[in-house]
Amino acid sequence: MNSTVLITGATSGIGKATAERLAIEGCRLIITGRREGLLLELKGKLEDKYKAEVLALCFDLRDREAVEKNLGKLPKEWAEVDVLVNNAGLAVGLAPIQEGIIDDWERMIDTNIKGLLYVTRCIVPGMAARRHGHIVNLGSIAGREVYPGGNVYCATKHAVNALSQGMRMDLLPYGVKVTQICPGAVETEFSLVRFKGNKERAAQVYEGFEPLCAADVADAIYFALSAPEHVDVQDLLLMAKAQASSGLFHKE
Ligand code: NDP
Ligand code: 8X3
């Protein structure tokens, strides 16, 4: 695949695994995240191990000015982005609505909805002008169902679901494909972030069954990206064999 791919949130989990998967496939990669050390470590690995061309951009995608500064005018040789993977996102807390922490709600809304929109607004006009491009949005089973305590996180992923459909409609005349990838439980830093660094609480989420791993999701993303040009994998829901719905697991 001879594509230039921008992946948000590549310092960990699904974004990192997708960067590696696409480097193996010969893509040029723009990787982003806030943790500069991890971003540069990944850049070095992709360059050394896979001989990939990599541009690493360190910024917080909740900061609109920072997004515009970094992505509004990419260096000339990186300006034509073929694929945008809107991956960066997080859940913070699992409190019932009446006990919710408003700062946590704002972190989720600002990252999962507003940050995704800021990035999309920078990158997609070029795709439309070139009549070519592919957007991959990381939705979730949490964008299809709601579970107790999931309130605001689920709302942000329902928003990603709506935005994916809206983007597809608006970009239809421009030949830009839009794919939503909706995983169930994937063992990444997701639960560590949700439970604010509590490793034991995070580990409990994945006890008793084999969850998806980040590479499983990266494979699904590659499947969508490698479909023939006339095919758009619009929506892909993938779960561990031991998960039937957001709250139903077969644990042993
Ligand atoms: P991780 O916590 O492992 O990775 C999240 C990534 O997002 C990190 O690279 C992080 O980078 C980046 N990120 C978070 N906030 C910001 C920010 N403000 N600015 C820039 N980058 C940010 O989680 P996952 O890999 O699991 O999650 C990736 C996506 O997949 C998310 O959208 C999540 O909602 C979704 N998802 C995850 C599932 C799961 O069970 N794990 C299931 C379904 C969907 P840094 O901290 O360096 O900024
Ligand atoms: C992450 C999966 O079910 O924890 O989006 O919300 S879930």
CATH class identity: Alpha Beta
Q: Catalogue the ligands.
A: NADPH dihydro-nicotinamide-adenine-dinucleotide phosphate, 2-hydroxyethylsulfonic acid
Overall tally of structural domains: 1
CATH architecture designation: 3-Layer(aba) Sandwich
User: How are the strands of the biggest sheet laid out side by side?
Assistant: 3-2-1-4-5-6-9
CATH homologous superfamily identity: NAD(P)-binding Rossmann-like Domain
Question: Mind explaining what this structure looks like?
Answer:
42% of the residues are buried. Helix 1 (13-24) crosses helix 8 and helix 4 runs parallel beside helix 5. The protein has eight helices and eleven strands. The protein has one domain (4-238): NAD(P)-binding Rossmann-like Domain (Rossmann fold), CATH 3.40.50.720. It is of the alpha/beta class. The strands form three sheets. The chain has a seven-stranded parallel sheet with strand order 3-2-1-4-5-6-9, with helices on both faces. A two-stranded parallel sheet has the order 7-8. It has a two-stranded antiparallel ribbon with strand order 10-11. Bound molecules: NADPH dihydro-nicotinamide-adenine-dinucleotide phosphate and 2-hydroxyethylsulfonic acid.
Q: Any chance you could write out the topology, listing elements then pairs?
A:
Blueprint: E1 4-7, H1 13-24, E2 28-33, H2 36-50, E3 54-58, H3 64-71, E4 83-86, H4 102-130, E5 133-138, H5 151-171, E6 176-183, E7 186-187, H6 190-194, H7 199-204, E8 212-213, H8 214-225, E9 235-238, E10 243-245, E11 248-249
Parallel strand pairs: 1-2, 1-4, 2-3, 4-5, 5-6, 6-9, 7-8
Antiparallel strand pairs: 10-11
The structure holds NADPH dihydro-nicotinamide-adenine-dinucleotide phosphate and 2-hydroxyethylsulfonic acid.
